[in-house]
Predict the 3D structure of the following.
Amino acid sequence: MRGQGVDLQKLVHEDMANHFALYPKQWGLTQPDKNIDHRRVPNLMVFFKRQGWEVSVSSLRADYLPGDIVTWNLRSSGMLPHIGIVSDRKTVSGEPLVIHNIGGGAQEQEGLFAYTIIGHYRPKESILSKG
């Protein structure tokens, strides 16, 4: 999001510093950590929801617009959260590609519906124009 003039690292840290009790506690922290908090998907999910970015999770590809943020659970049992951004490009069949890093560096590829979607977020234009 820095390419859009949005410092998500700074914004998440500031919100966590002011509302730490609202964020997940699974890492055993007693205060925010500005170096890692913005990289933790559960923290981002809370932040996005608090910003009013949450939209309905859907099984319809047309409901996912370029720039939307999607979170998945990669496991069939337990939780392994993952995050990506919906691309403006699509497969031949019309499914939006996603941009994510699942171990091989950032890649744009198929897979929007490959895992269970647990969050769908659409950044507000107002934050993107603050840059």
